[in-house]
Fold this protein.
Amino acid sequence: MSTKNIEHIIELSKDLRWQIGDDFHDVLSESIYAEASKIVESSVKKDDQKRRFRIDAQIDKIVTSKVWGFPIMLLLLGVVLWLTIIGANYPSSMLASLLLDMIHPMLKNGANFLDFPWWLSGFLIDGVYLAVAWVIAVMLPPMAIFFPLFTLLEDFGYLPRVAFNMDALFKKSGAHGKQALTMSMGFGCNAAGVVATRIIDSPRERLIAIITNNFSLCNGRWPTQILLATIFIGAVVPESYSSLASLSAVIGIAVLGIFFMFFFSWALSKTVLKGEVSTFNLELPPYRPPVFWKTIYTSLIDRTLIVLWRAIVFAAPAGAVIWLICNIYIGSESIAAWLVHSLDGFGFLLGLNGVVLLAYIVAIPANEIVIPTILMLTVMVVGIGGGAGAGVMFELDSVTATGDVLKAGGWTLLTAVNVMLFSLLHNPCSTTIYTIYKETKSKKWTTIASILPVIAGFVVTFLVAQVWRIFS
Amino acid sequence: MEKQTKSACETCSHYNAEGLKKLGVNTESFDFVVALAGNPNTGKSTVFNALTGLRQHTGNWPGKTVARAEGAFEYNAQKYKLVDLPGTYSLLSTSEDEEVARDFILFGKPTLTVIVVDASRLERNLNLVLQILEITDHAILCLNLMDEAKRNHIEVDARILAKDLGIPVVATSARFKEGIPELLKTISDLANRKITCKPHKIKNIPKNIEKAVEELSTSIKKEYPTIANSRWLAFRLLEGDKQVIEGLRTGKFV
Amino acid sequence: MSTINPVVSLLVFFSLTILLYYVFRPTKGIYFLLKKNYKSKTKTIIEDILKLLYHNQVSNKNLTTNDLTDKLNYNNQLLIESISKMIENELIYMENDSFRLTELGNEYALQIVRAHRLWEKFLSEKTGFDKKEWHERAERKEHELSVDETNKLSELLGDPKYDPHGDPIPTKTGKVAPKKGVSLSELSVGAVGRIIHIEDEPEIIYKQILAEKIHLDSQIRVVENNRMRVVFHSEGEKFVLAPVVAGNITVLVLENQAVSEENIMRLSSLQENEVAKIIGLSKECRGENRRRLLDLGFVRGAIVEVDLRNPLKDPTAFLIKGTSIALRENQASKILIKKE
């Protein structure tokens, strides 16, 4: 067939389009719906005219009421987070003792037995294996608790009501109410939160939700916050208040994250994203009792394992890099030591130190390994005993011992506060960055999402450090 | 609408496979490819799971499956590939989900399309059904969530509906696996073309638009005599759909 | 390691921030001014003069050199140079101290107007930019679009006839639909009409009209008109405007009083336990938003009622075709209904 005739059809369509006028789409939509009504008239019998099922309406009245709407929401989120953080402790420590205290020495012995050269067993077992083991031990239990709980709420149909309740707040910062949910999902894992933004079908609001998801303090960062708050912030108040003080500090950081999320949502919608198409609609589906076991099973498969797998894929090479920079020497210094010293000046300006900055650079793949890396680097740089050897990440059993190592590394209250801030405000982990790229398919937005939080982190820690120094 | 005579080539499975392969569907070793379409929140993914035994997560959310999910099942010694399309309200707009769903039905030409609807919200769901019936002749209506409809005191007469729409209608409650055997049998019957569809076409369009559509669709048919959905292409052309224009130019529809 | 004085570093930081702000702040920043100056070469100036002359010629006003220097924000030297260049190229000529467009100049001016209005249409249909920004963005874009690009743009948009403010878009061949209607401030009490144009210049007045949420294509009835204020009813709401503001709204008077649809109102004003039928979507509801609402079933003839009110007032969930769908106030206000 000749293309000429096709062009003729297209030309014809243009002419006809001009004749019909602008409202073709309206008329077509109306006609189809009118036809649907006609068909329904003959085949559907309704007993109770139009009224929605009564129990649904009753539940909706309560969960969106002025009095109960917000308390119910906060209570549910609080319970889910509490169950996750407290409940994950036991399986986490069990996994840690299994993977780190039992299997790791066994592997080392096995490597010795097989006469591996020191560098090979170091690289594979101390580097790659340890990083992966760490990520699994810290990441798996909270996610295995958080996601099923969240999914149950989702399947029941409660989450769209949360979006409905919260929308006015998000609208003010140019975002969509559904971002309340992707944000909450981010408390579990930012990568999962980014995937969850698929429920937002408006292009601009979805990008906002993706870029700002990192401001939700994720599972990999809660332990860091809790540990530092316990060691440093709990210590400045009388002992009877110490757990209260450290708890408030952690919650304060999470709330600060929400504040930054709102602020950057607003700033983005007013600047780089203002040209993106923005629409709003939110369907409130009927409540459906979730099929309990199936939900648990599918959320484990769909969310937990997929995210865990991605994390492992990224953590393994990171472990290798950490081991290598600690064991390759330039002159008399290892690469790590050299990097720590060159980053010290900039670190001081931010109220941090070179160790912290290097730890955040090499631990891009997973926030979970930041504390072990910091401890390992501190021991190495300061030259005190207690470590497990160059390039071997470790954590100490007692909080006091961890505090002693950090204080030996020159940490003050300011350092701790700023590390807590920087842990909230830094680039997303590489799993999240990769996920952002997969979801947006855009290098530009991925770059913005990666760099924006680091800049915020630099500015905030810098300001805190300077003001702190002036007043102390 | 006059009935098109189908060439032998158009109905054989190899013919379908070509279009599907272009959309990245592995068609090797499958006898049929079945697309699963429907509004968001109609339990589409539950139907998908009930048919394939896969456990894909189904959230109580509009628009959960953005990417295409694929699964397979066997029935009467024939192998079926099932493709779960994103849930959409319509195929007339330009969102990403709608493009995925539309491209698959339009360019992929699956053996048949199962349209899942919520029995208690039939009117809203028929909007999409009527649009799909403009694109394809081989479709089955899966009247899902019958349990919920019963709770809401809504009765749907599947027989009248089947007559009005001109396609087989199967009532199911996929959550409880009710109606799934019937659905499987209907899929098999239609796939083997034991039953024929005479789908309902949209009728009550204002005269001036109907005239334009007729004129365009006639000239499309002149160019591509075997095309089954010239009317729908005419709709899209009148909306200035870039992809359909491109598809016409490159002959993607043939 | 040397320590750095915190006060000094803070000072350095803030002065850097302020510097960056002054360089890069939107529209008034040094960077943007430089960019604008670099771009506002003779071509832009010439095109702006042509446009100004065209608009004034349409309303039968004559412009002298002084008028041009007053109205256009350019360096006088540059303006004079451009004018002489335009006379040389036979785009304009002098007549009794004022400038007139030649045939060629008129054609050129129409092309710029076409590009401007098409770009506004594009912004309204295919992007999320706010109404307030359309005009300014089109002011810049009109100088960048070639004739070819303009035609392609028009095709992409389906060759629209009107821009989002209700102004006619000149066709490829330079035809312009004549302007109709009268200014709202000239209507007498009791007059019924339909808003067909909302002027987007000057910006101060346009912003006031936008703040009032007056919708293009809505039907109005004047209930008061004096030197102090113009009061009218539209879509179930009451609007009070200063005469200057009302002067920027053009209304097509509907002679036949019977067409008056007084009981049309906006969905946003529907109360709980009321049932209404949808009459249609306002012209103000555009692009992707409009298509979405239609897909969701907000079509003419559909029955709608309030399902749930939000604890924070916005959005409201409406029951439509068996499903509860939440819409924000600014969307609901663009859906027109009639109570059952």
Observations:
- Chain B has a mean pLDDT of 82.
- Chain B has two domains: 8-191, 207-250.
- Chain B touches chain A through 65 residues (CB under 8 Å).
- DSSP finds eleven helices and seven strands in chain B.
